[in-house]
Amino acid sequence: MDYFSMERQHVFLITCSSLVVIMNLICLLILLHRSAPFSRFGMLFTMFVTRVVYGLMTISASALWLLPRPIFFETVFGNTRLLLYSLLTPHLAEQIVSVSGALCALDRVLVMATNVRYNVFRLGGRLSFTALLINASTLACFYGATAVLRSTKELNFVQFTHDVLKYCVFPLTLLGSTLLYVVFAIQYRQFYLRKLNVADRKQALQANQMVLFQMVMHIVLCAIPNGLATLNSPFIRLRMKWVDSMEPFNGVMFSMSVLLASLFTAIKMRPRRIFLRVASSGSSPCTK
User: Fold this and answer.
1) Which residues contact 63 (CB under 8 A, 6 or more apart)?
2) Is the predicted pLDDT of residue 95 greater than 80, yes or no?
3) What span, in angstroms and rounded, lies between the C-alpha atoms of 283 and 264?
4) Which residues contact 16 (CB under 8 A, 6 or more apart)?
5) How confident is the model at residue 199 (pLDDT cuts 50, 70, 90)?
6) What is the set of domains in the chain, with CATH numbers?
7) Which residues, including other chains, have CB under 8 Å from residue 58's CB and lie 6 or more apart?
8) What is the pLDDT of residues 110-146, one digit of tens each?
9) The dihedral of CA 134, 135, 141, 142: what is its sign?
10) Does the keyword Membrane apply (predicted)?
11) Considering the entire predicted model, what is its pTM?
12) Torsion of CA 81, 83, 86, 92, to 10 degrees
């Protein structure tokens, strides 16, 4: 990819990530306003927070690549820690979103499968804490390795760390999340075949639709492209040229998946106008 195309890609990533941050902050405010105190900090909360962090991390990494070329080579390429940050951050951002999305799917599976026990044992809060712990540990591990570098010439270590994250850790995360999404889809179908009352269906419908849309975006725009890229990685080396031509755009496709999932979530969570009919006096609008 030439420098101009790469520059446009980072401009797109910054724009896309900025929209992701704004939409998920709005969703967070709506969630905190509507939810009961005991259910506010479940997996939906964690998913929104993770998307905000994803957006901020992507913006910071892309901004480094948009520095004027003389400044970039002097300050970023000449500093191993900063170079490693700019290379690892986009993949770490994708990693934490994938973990939170997978556990959000697992959360919905538990809601549909266990129902009463889900609330009694507060499984949503426990899954939320698990997602935060996994993501915090991942960031601490890779950024900690960056911080302890002593030499500014350890480019082999930089490349190796980047390849391990991109072609080993991240694909395994995508595989695990895809399997959880498949379980969610099966449970989703079984859940709606049951004889449930209308209130129960409506209560579960909104969150399930969000996760279902996220599942489609994840598989089509994330799991498949990155899975193909892994087959061409230095660890497998199938050398498919058409996959090589697609790989530079994997980050853009991932960003698009997060943006579209965030947009769908924001539409589903928007306040709606409800009309209450009053006896013999017409109807009066009431917003909720």
Assistant:
1) 10, 14
2) yes
3) 30
4) 252, 255, 256, 258, 259
5) low
6) 3-287 (1.20.1070.10)
7) 13, 14, 17, 89, 90, 93, 255
8) 877 766 566 666 777 888 899 999 999 989 988 887 7
9) positive
10) yes
11) 0.83
12) -60
Task: Tell me what pLDDT residue 286 has.
Answer: 45
pLDDT, tens digit (0-9, with 9 covering 90-100), for 45-57? 899 999 999 999 9
Residue 99 and residue 134 in contact, taking contact as beta carbons nearer than 8 Å: yes
Closest CA to 123 of 145, 104, 136: 104
Q: What is the pLDDT of residues 155-165, one digit of tens each?
A: 677 677 778 88
| Proportion of the chain above pLDDT 70, given as a percent | 80
Q: Which residues contact 123 (CB under 8 A, 6 or more apart)?
A: 107, 110, 114, 117
What is the number of other CB atoms lying within 10 angstroms of the CB of residue 150? Answer: 6
How far is residue 12 from each of residues 6, 31, 197, 256, 261, measured CA to CA in Å?
Answer: 10, 28, 45, 10, 17
pLDDT tens column, 249-269? 888 999 999 999 999 988 888
The token duo for 110 is 């538990």
